Protein 1
Amino acid sequence: MMFKDKKFVLGVCGGIAAYKSAELCSWLRKEGAQVRVVMTQHATEFIAPLTFETLTQSPVYLDLFAPPRAYEMEHISWACWGDAFVIAPATANTIAKMAAGIADDALTTLYLSFEGPVVVAPAMNTRMWQHPATRANIATLEVRGVHIISPETGPLACGEEGEGRLASVRTIVDNLAYLLSQTVTKARTPRAHPETDDTTSFQLADSDGPLSGKTVVITSGPTHEYIDPVRFLTNPSSGKMGCALARAAAQLGATVHLVTGPVNPTVLPEECATIHKVTTAEQMLLAVEALRDKADVFIFAAAVSDFRVDRRIEQKIKRTGNSLTLELVENPDIAQAIGAKKRPDQVSVGFAAETHDVEANALCKMSRKRLDAIVANDVANPRIGFESDDNEVTIYVQNGDKRFISRRPKEDVARAVMEVVVELLQQKQRNKQV
Ligand code: C5P
C-alpha cells in the first residue's frame, strides 16, 4: 500500500470537478491513508459532505464556527495532524484567497496554519486559468513552495475545450507519492556530498532491481552538424536529461549504454554507463544500430539536429561581401528508423520538445516513430527544458495512459520515466506469456 500510515487533509472547493475528489479520497483510503476532508461552502453545492464522511469515516470540516465536537479547533489540530494538505479541485477564488492570505472559511484558515507540504490541483474554465490574476496567484503560491499540479487540456464542463480540467486522480496520487518520498528523503537520508545541497545523490545500482539483466540504450545531448571545419548547426541541449536517465536506469539494475552528442564531459555518468561519444546524427544512428539487437529498451532523449548541409565545405568559409546560401538536407530520424525495425519485446520511449499543441504533436510523434511512450515538455516555458536543471513533463503511453510530472529536478523526472519503462517491459512480458 502506497500510503500506509500516511495522513492527508483533502480540501474540496466548489467546482464541477468536486465529484472527482470523492474518487481521489477513496483511492487514498485504498492505498492505506487516513483522510480528513475540509470543504468550502460552495463545494457542498456540488457534492454532499456525507459522501466524504462515509468514505473517510470521520466528520467533514466545513464551518469555522460550528459547535466543537470534541472541544478541538480543527484549523489548528488538523494542521499538525496531516502529512500533506491536498486541495483538489482548487478554484480560482480559493487560489486567490490563499495567495492573499485571506482566511475567511475553514479551508483557507486551515491553509494558513498548515505545517506540512501543500498540494494544489486547480480546475476551472480556460480563460479563468489563463487570466493574469490567476497566473500571478499561482506564481505567488509556487514561490512559497506550494506544489501545483497543472490542469489538463480537454473538454470542459462548460462545453468549451481547453486547459483547465482537473489533473487525473492517478496524476494527483503520483504527485503525492513523489512529494512524500521527497519529504522523507530530505529528512532521513545523509547527503553523499555534504558540501553541496545535492539531495538526489547517486545510489548504488540495485542488482535485484526491476531492470537487472536488461540493457538500456539512451541517446542524449545535441548533435553538431558541421558546415565547414569550424562552424556547425546545433541546439542548446545540455545532455542532463539523458545522463539522469542513464543513472536512473543503472540504479534499477540495468546495463546502460549512453550514446551522447558533444556535451560537457563532467555531466557524463561514466560510473554507471558505457559512453559512446558521437558528433553527428548519422554517427548517432550508426552507434544505436550497433547496439540494436542487445537492447531491451531504447530511450531517445537526444535533441538531434533535423538538418545538415548536404556537403560539408572543406575549408573555412570566407566573407565575400555577398550573402551566403546554405542548402540543408534532412538527417535520419533515429527514433523512427529504430522504431520501424524494433522487435515486439523491445520498449522504446521518445521525447517531444514542443512550443505549441504539445499533446497533439506528442501523440502524433509517438505513433509515427512507433514509440511505446513519449515524454512531452513545453519548451516555450523558460523555467524548464533545455539547459535547466528542472523539467516538467507529461508522459503519454500507447495504451492511452497519461501522467503529468510537475516541475522537479531532472533526476526525479528520470525516475518517473523509468517507472513507466519498467511497467511497459512487464506488460510486454505478460503479452508474451499469453
Ligand atoms: O520530431 P522530433 O525531433 O521532435 O522528435 C523527438 C524525438 O525523436 C526525440 O525522442 C528525439 O530524440 C528523437 N529524434 C531522433 N532523431 C532525429 C530527431 C529526433 O531520434 N533526427
Protein 2
Amino acid sequence: MTTESLLPIVQRALAHAKRPAIVEPGGRFTYGDLLNASANVAATLTAECGQLDQGRVAYLVPPGCIYAAVQWGVWRAGGVGVPMAPSHPARELAYILDDADPAAIIAHASFLDSVERLATNRGVPVFTAQALMRHRDDGWRDPDVGVDDRALMVYTSGTTGTPKGVVTTHANIEAQVRSLVEAWEWTEEDRILHVLPLDHVHGIVNALSCALWSGASCHVLPDFDARKVWERFAEGDLSLFMAVPTIYTKLIGAWQEGSDEDKMRWSGGAKKLRLMVSGSAALPVRTLERWREITGQTLLERYGMTEIGMALSNPLRGERVPGHVGTPLPGVEIRQVDEAGQVQDSTQGPGELEVRGPGVFLEYWRRPDETAAAFNEGWFRTGDVAVVHHGQFRLLGRASIDILKSGGYKVSALEIEELFREHPQVCDCAVVAIDDPEWGDLVCAALVLEPGSSLDPFELRRWSKELLASYKVPRRMMVLDELPRNTMGKVTKPAISDLFRAAELGEADPDKG
Ligand code: MLC
Ligand code: AMP
C-alpha cells in the first residue's frame, strides 16, 4: 500500500494492523481488517460513482465493524460521510437525503429495502455495505484527500425549525480528536465500551474516532441495554466508558433492580475502568453522587457541541467539580459575551459562550446566511450561557427557550410545532420542556384543536411517532382552549411549562398522551 496519500487516521492504523479495532457481539475487526474493508468500499464507490471529490455519501448502518469500514471507505474515496440513524422514520431520512443531495447511499443489508424505497424517486444509487466491503480491487490507490476537504456532515436541530447539516473537515475532526486524546490520555491499550448512536458527534468523534486514532479497541453494543452494559463492565477488561446522563440514570435504575450478587459483580467490574465520562446534557449532581456510591467512579463531565466538538472538560487528574464542566480543552479558546455580543470578563457573571479553534466546523450545508449568523468576529456563538466559579465553567442554560435536550439529543421546539400544525385537526401548538430526572428535558406539547375536533392526544402521539425521530415525540400533551400569550400576542412558553409542571404534580388533569 502506498502510504503518502493516506489520511492521518488511516495512516496511523498501519502501525496497529494486528490489534483489535472494533469488537462487536459476534464479530471483530483488526486494524488490518478495517484497512482492507475500507479500501474495498472506497475502490468500489470510486469505480461506480467516479471521483467523489467531496460528494456526499449517506449511510444507514448500525454501529459496529461495518459502520467503521463504510465511514473510512467514504473518507478514503474523498467523500463526505452523512450518517443516518437506523431508528429514524422514513420522513426524517427523506429530509436528510433531500438536503444532503448525496452522490450515493450505502445501506446495511438489513435496511436495503427501506433505503431503496427512499432512493427510487431521488435517482441516487444505493449500495449494500456488505457487498462493497467484499469487493476486491488490487489496483486501488488512495487519492489525495486534502485535510481541509469536507469529511462529515452531521444533522442537528436548530432554532430555525428544520435540521441543518453541520459540515466538518478532516482537519476539524483531527483537531477535535487530538484535543481529547491529549486531555484524557488515550493510548493503544485502551478499551472503550461504545453504546452511543453513530449519527452524532459524541459517538462518532469522542468514542469511535478517538479510539481508532489511538490504536485502541472499541467494543460496540449496537443498542443500549442497561443489563448488557453492566454485564460487560463485570468482565473487568474495559478502561473507558462515555455516555449521556440519561444512560447513567438508566444504569443506576438497572443496578438497583439487580440481585445482591449482580450488584457486587457489576460494581466490581465498573471500578476497574480508568475513566468514565458524561456529556451532551447537564449531569445532575445526584446522578454523579449515586454513580460514585455504586462504582467508586467520579464521572468526568465535559461540554461540547456538534459544531465545535468538545470545548470544556473537568480534569482527568485533579478535582472534578460536580455541576461544573471544567476548563477549555487543548486547542480550544473560549470567551463570554453579553446579550449585545460584547466580550465580557469572567467576573462579570453569566455570559454566552463563544468558541474558536481548529475543531470548529466549516459551515452549515448550503446555508451561508445561517453559517455567517452563527459567528461573531470569527467566534462560534454556542447559545449556551455559563458563569465561571473558581476558574471552572458552570452552564446555566440555553439562550433560546426553543432548544431542548432529551436523553442527550437536541430537539427543536419549532420543528415539532411546525409538524403538528400540519395535522388537519390541530389549530395551534407550542412545544416546551419540563425538567425530568431521567430525560433531562421532557418534551411537552400544548395543543389547540380546530373547533369541533375531538382528536384524542393518544391518536396524535401515534401519528407523530410515524413521522418524527422517537426522541422528538412529545411525552406529554395537553389540549388548551387557547395558548397563553403576552400583551404583544407572543406565546408565553414559561406559562405553558408551568401548566405541565402543575399537571405532573397532580394539580391539573392533562392528557399524558
Ligand atoms: C428514546 N426515547 C426517547 C429518547 N430515546 N425519548 C425521549 N428522549 C430520548 N432521547 C423513547 C423511545 O422511543 C421509547 O418510546 C422510550 O423513550 C423508551 O425507550 P428506551 O428503550 O427506554 O430508550 P432507549 O432506546 O434506551 O434510549 C435512551 C438513550 C438514547 C438514552 C440510550 O436516547 C440515546 O442513545 N441517547 C444518546 C443521544 C446522543 O448520543 N446524543 C449526543 C448528541 S452530540 P416509546 O414511546 O416507544 O416508549 C452532542 C454534543 C455533545 O450532544 O456534547 O456530546
Ligand atoms: P448538540 O447540538 O446536539 O451537539 O448538543 C450540544 C448542546 O448540548 C450544547 O449546546 C449544550 O446545550 C448541551 N450540552 C453538551 N454538554 C453539556 C453538559 N455537560 N452540560 C450541559 N449541557 C451540555
